[in-house]
């Protein structure tokens, strides 16, 4: 079986390592984390291979054994340094090295040449490894890099029931920004909603109960119908009075909520215009949302 070493086995690294080992795609040979204790914990989560051996926890990249594949699963800012250390460890031996950053291309791994290089970014929220073990299937993985490495990783992720697409390295920052808007910013948006509910005197647990059905249905509508058809609410209706009331309430509540409401409201006006909102109503809403005294 092909061997895989993981540098930085956090939530993503340990999830992929365990799934690949369980499916017989790779045998995880060694792990190097920021501490040996953390590497030991990741090794126990990934579990033993077919021989009953756990992945080896290594204190440094230089002490990791040889492997066919190397996953650099560190945070983006640490990938260049990890690539330099790994390049010294590989010393020109043939292998495949890849990272899972959404924003960086495979060229950041150039110190590892002549290894085949790639990047593989799962469009998935690795909030907890336990949850991701059950929910990763069906996610899309964006691949980029050398043809051989991309082909091998396509097969590896297909074995986890993931879809794949290929990108140019130069397109990754914009692609990743799109993913952040839909995932991370959605989380921030829900937090803003909870803050507004709290200011209205609604308990957090009640607010979460209220949000669950409407957010779930809104997401389903967007995925099924597209944003233009899924948009509802006062801006979609051109309801100037309601939007003005919202702005007045937010102005005396929280400047961050007010600012976000205005910016997102203007995006909604543009979206509503695409679905047929009257131009005059759209212009009045745009003016209201842009006025500094609201």
UniProtKB/TrEMBL annotation:
Pfam families: DUF2520. This is Predicted oxidoreductase, contains short-chain dehydrogenase (SDR) and DUF2520 domains. It comes from Microbulbifer yueqingensis. It comes from the Bacteria. InterPro entries: 6-PGluconate_DH-like_C_sf (IPR008927), DUF2520 (IPR018931), NAD(P)-bd_dom_sf (IPR036291), TM1727-like_C_sf (IPR037108). Keywords: Oxidoreductase. GO terms for molecular function: oxidoreductase activity. Residues 140-267 form the DUF2520 domain.
């Amino acid at each position: 079986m092909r061997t895989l070493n993981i540098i930085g086995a956090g939530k993503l690294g340990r999830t992929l390592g365990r799934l690949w080992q369980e499916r017989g795609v790779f045998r995880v040979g060694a792990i190097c984390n920021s501490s040996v204790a953390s590497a030991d914990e990741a090794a126990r989560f990934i579990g033993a291979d077919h021989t009953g051996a756990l992945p080896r926890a290594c204190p440094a990249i230089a002490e990791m054994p040889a492997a066919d594949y190397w996953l650099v699963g560190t945070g983006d800012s640490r990938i260049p340094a990890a690539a330099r250390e790994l390049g010294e460890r590989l010393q020109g031996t043939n292998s495949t090295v890849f990272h899972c950053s959404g924003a960086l291309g495979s060229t950041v791994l150039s110190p590892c040449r002549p290894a085949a290089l790639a990047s593989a970014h799962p469009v998935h929220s690795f909030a907890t490894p336990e949850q991701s073990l059950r929910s990763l299937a069906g996610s899309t993985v964006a691949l980029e890099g050398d043809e051989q490495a991309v082909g091998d990783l396509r097969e590896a992720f297909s074995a986890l029931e993931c879809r794949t697409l290929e990108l140019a390295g130069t397109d990754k920052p914009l692609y990743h920004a799109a993913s952040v808007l839909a995932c991370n910013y959605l989380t921030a948006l829900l937090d803003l909603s909870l803050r507004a509910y709290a200011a209205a005197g609604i308990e957090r647990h009640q607010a979460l109960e209220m949000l669950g059905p409407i957010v779930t249905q809104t997401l389903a509508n967007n995925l099924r119908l597209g944003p233009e058809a899924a948009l509802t609410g006062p801006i979609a209706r051109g309801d100037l009075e309601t939007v003005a009331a919202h702005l007045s309430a937010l102005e005396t509540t929280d400047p961050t909520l007010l600012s976000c409401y205005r910016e997102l409201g203007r995006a909604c006006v543009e979206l509503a215009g695409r679905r047929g909102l009257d131009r005059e109503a759209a212009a009045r809403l745009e003016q209201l949302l842009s006025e500094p005294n609201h």
